[in-house]
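S.,

Sequence below, as promised.
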Amino acid sequence: MEASGDDNKQEQRMEPINWAPEHSDALRENLARGLSFSESVKAINLKFSTAYSRNAAIGRAKRMGLTREDRPKSQLSAKPPSLQRIVEPRSTEHRMPAFHWPAPVFERVEPTKLRCVAIEPRHLSLIELEYGDCRYPYGGDEEGEAITFCGHPRRPGSSYCTPHFHLSRNPIVLPECATGTASLRVIEAA
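The prediction came back faster than expected:
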């Protein structure tokens, strides 16, 4: 099996895992002088014509037992954040927004129960429904009341028969091009 061009490039850039002793000594010396891993690898790669990566140098330093404590501390020192800026007392007075929207008033409205009076449902259970049956639900309004389904043939592209399809879209205004023999009207169930 032939390797792709990207694999060949990567093989050319990477050195074998085993570091030569002089390379390991150069890494130890560079780290002792305070160079970063990136700077150390650049120096080693220039001196020995190698292609070690920064991560390879970090791994080699760990295997050699060079820990972070062995390296000199950075000259940059971070100051702890100022607590005065973090813990500013906030005013206790309530701030009003610049523009106050009035709260909407909602009135309790009983939902209108919609049923198609021109079609007599077959009242099929969920298990009795077949692929082409209308899935318009009946019942379930009261606690413990069984839910049944219309069961008449479905309209193509819908889960409902034609009358229930139109009832579910806009029960008040019927479209002019409604197909089907059943007429619809809205009734309020008692």
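The first strand starts at residue 137 and ends at 139.

Coffee later?
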